[in-house]
Amino acid sequence: MARAYxxxxxxxxxxxxxxxxxxxxxxxxxxxxxxxxxxxxEVEHLVPLSSLPERLFETQRGRDLLxxxxxADQDIDPEIIKPALLDIRSVGQQRMxxxxxxxxxxxxxxxxxxxxxxxxxxxxxxxxGQGTPTxxxxxxxxxxxxxxxxxxxxxxxxxxxxxxxxxxxxxxxWFGDSVSKLVIALADYLREFTDAVEQQRPVPVPPSPDIAxxxxxxxxxxxxxxxxxxxxxxxxxxxxxxxVTMENLGLDCDTDFPERPLxxxxxxxxxxxxxxxxxxxxxxxxxxxxxxxxxxxxxxxxPAKLERxxxxxxxxxxxxxxNLPVMEYFVASEAPNSIEAVHVASLEMMRSLEKGRxxxxxxxxxxxxxxxxxxxxxxxxxxxxxxxxLAMLHDVVEDGSMRVTGYGHSLRKIQFRFGGxxxxxxxxxxxxxxxxxxxxxxxxTLQQPHLLLPQAQYNVGxxxxxxxxxxxxxxxxxxxxxVIKILxxxxxxxxxxxxxxxxxxxxxxxxxxxxxxxxxxxxIVKPLMERLLIELKASQADPNYSSRPHxxxxxQLRAGPAILETLMTYQDMYxxxxxxxxxxxxxxxxxxxxxxxxxxxxxxxxxxxFAERVLHSLLDDEQLRQGxxxxxxxxxxxxxxxxxxxxxxxxxxxxxxxxxxxxxLRRQEIRxxxxxxxxxxxxxxxxxxxxxxxxxxxxxxxxxxCQATTDSASSTAESSDTSLSKPAQxxxxxxxxx
Length: 738
Hints:
Blueprint: H1 9-23, E1 27-28, E2 32-33, H2 36-42, E3 46-48, H3 60-70, H4 88-91, E4 96-98, H5 108-129, H6 137-145, E5 152-153, E6 164-165, H7 168-198, H8 209-232, H9 240-248, H10 260-274, H11 281-301, H12 318-323, H13 325-328, H14 339-352, H15 364-379, H16 385-393, H17 396-399, H18 411-418, H19 420-428, H20 437-446, H21 454-458, H22 479-498, H23 510-520, H24 522-541, H25 554-585, H26 590-601, H27 607-618, H28 621-629, H29 655-673, H30 679-699, H31 701-704, H32 707-717, H33 733-736
Antiparallel strand pairs: 1-2, 3-4, 5-6
């Protein structure tokens, strides 16, 4: 059910972000819904420059890549580069390229971001610059949601069989009457409009001028995505399987311009939409007609002009975005804690990270949207636009860098666009060149006598001339930085839990995953958890807490337990999945796996008992070596009980795994301290962990299993229907709910 706090414009916007991430992240304007195999090919990884298709180097994007790799110390014009004169094959074998630098089809959620910002421009600057109050925030949200209407919402459950559908009931429950009715009206009219244009019938009259403007924004945003794909010539670099998919959609992939039919179709739809009575001229029709439509028309008339649509400054991207009124006129530094700043931040994130794909099923935009959606659920009344803006921007500098996506973003650019305070908060969340900086910053935060509020630390509300740099280890995190860092971790954990079959290489095994959770991200979030816990206890123990100079207000304090509970829940689910992976690496059957999980979480089992019963009994190294022989695991160093570069003759390295268990037991203590250990909550947690194991077994369980252990697992599975115990009242796994 929807939460009890007011359904504000911000809440509806953030919920829309969540729905988009859960329904439309795998869908593309050109290709429709992509297969999981297609998505897996796009997951971020490193490839040799020499392995890239030769046709890529003939495009603007390809020449940009060659300029960065071969002429990094020169300010060279990529247009003068002659790929045939470069020794790409031999030199390129040593140059590893992040695949997030390569052109890809953009997700439909980018269309929603574009349309929302177009309509926000109409609201603020339409009607000849006077603004259009009838272009409500509800209609903007409805325009974002219309593509999600009727689709399955993947974040509503781990299992696809249990996913909710974004139907009328869902919309009315989570978005209220106004947004829901507008979504339905807009979706119905868009269908009628599209059918009329494609069948060359008279276009029906739109229900209102605002609906007409929304339809024009939707069509223009779709055209922008198609134009970029055509300019980047994405289809020409696809492999055989992907090309078959495109050919099944009616495209001729052997031509030099396979996108032409789609570009023509969306050009016609946009042109007809702009003719609808009531479409705003000043803030929508004029800036888009004079940039996007003209550029597409030129490319259709002369395919040699396709490259004008491509690249960071291409007419299908840079000129469209920069000429949108919200980018041209709105000054985010003067209203950093506003819903308008959130929209502009979403646009900045989208245009900078459009090629970015995470090591999971997610695009960069969906990752940011998911953080925002979870923030709304756990913060409730404490949710502020500033938090959502940070969720949008937290990865822009780090993942928009030249080496990652080729965009070349920087904190200085964030400061220019959004002002010094927001840039400083983004800098908190941007990894520096010093790997340990985040952990040092978190430890310093734990040592502080009070939490730092961003408003006090950065003087939010006015532009300040400040120097910003990534993750300054000597400066503590602010409360906003703590919240985003924790929720970012929650979403990263969720991504790892949800799609285990998409893991590859060492990330498919327990070593990298447990090290990341405990030593890498854990070194940051564990001190931050403890600092929040200290503040919560202080607010409860000190009757004069609200009189302290640096106190946290009561609304934010009430959100504290929800933040910690959410993080701990996902940490426990991720740990349970990691234990299942570890069990597979060691060839354990289902009963043995259940024992491993139970002993790991049992606080009544001390270190000596755990070492005897688990480390030196269940986890038998001979079984692990057999796993290497039968390719259940690539090498012993992929397992958490050995160092990364270990050989079969190396000694064990158990410290990380032992500390990982200590962290799990500490989470149980925190639950007791915050009274989050009720039977109802622990039972719910246990059920979620069982769901994680079922998803794992269904999607990936057999990947690790040698035939010898498969037979054993099959026989024991018949005597064990579940992998976790039922709730109990002692100190075991079942009692703690972990």
